[in-house]
Amino acid sequence: MSNMYRGIKALGLVAMAGLLNAPAFAQDSQEISPEDAKKLFAASCSWCHGNFGMKAGKGGPKLAGTSKDEEGVYNTIVKGQGAMPSFKNTLTEVQARALAKYIKSLPNE
Ligand code: HEC
């Protein structure tokens, strides 16, 4: 009986260690797929920038073809610009960089 208890306890510890490791592991991987960047854009940016950045939206300009380079776009996301709020506290650096990359990948039409 006590052996079984010890076994269950050990299993619990392993499971907990797994849970604790999971977020750190996700942060370590510096990769956000283009599809996830697009989803993130839809969730965080689309209400001001229309059609996934391809059109001006309610209050925000079209982002495709921006004259800013990737670093400039990243800075706008982190610092905000004019009526656009800063996303410093809502997005991680990895997310902001993925969004900058996403915006620079939009076709300039
Ligand atoms: C509350 C509305 C709003 C939200 C939400 C918003 N933006 Fe903006 N964004 C603006 C406005 C307004 C401007 C123009 C600011 C100015 O130049 O005066 C702008 C400008 C920009 C620019 C600069 C474009 C250029 O060429 O100068 C980028 C890049 C940008 N936004 C990206 C994003 C991203 C990425 C998100 C989501 C994380 C986002 N924005 C969310 C309103 C918003």
Can you give me a brief rundown of this structure?
The chain is mainly alpha-helical and 109 residues long.
3D architecture notes:
The chain has helices spanning 2-28, 34-44, 70-79, 93-105; strands at 49-50, 55-56. With 109 residues, the protein is mainly alpha-helical. The protein has 2 domains: 1-30; 31-109, Orthogonal Bundle (Cytochrome Bc1 Complex, Chain D, domain 2), CATH 1.10.760.10. Strands 1-2 form a two-stranded antiparallel sheet.
Q: For the largest sheet, list the strands in their spatial order.
A: 1-2
CATH superfamily of the largest domain: Cytochrome c-like domain
Level-1 CATH class name of the largest domain: Mainly Alpha
Structural class: mainly alpha
**Low-pLDDT runs:** 20-28
The CATH architecture name of the largest domain reads Orthogonal Bundle
Small molecules bound in the structure, each named once: heme C
The oligomerization state is: single chain
How many separate structural domains? 2
CATH topology of the largest domain: Cytochrome Bc1 Complex, Chain D, domain 2
Helix content: 55-70%
Radius of gyration: 20 Å
Strand content: under 5%
The N- to C-terminal Cα distance equals: 71 Å
Layout: helices, strands, pairs:
Layout: H1 2-28, H2 34-44, E1 49-50, E2 55-56, H3 70-79, H4 93-105
Antiparallel strand pairs: 1-2
The structure holds heme C.
Keywords:
single chain, 109 residues, mainly alpha, Cytochrome Bc1 Complex, Chain D, domain 2, 2 domains, two-stranded antiparallel sheet, 4 helices, 4% strand, elongated, binds heme C
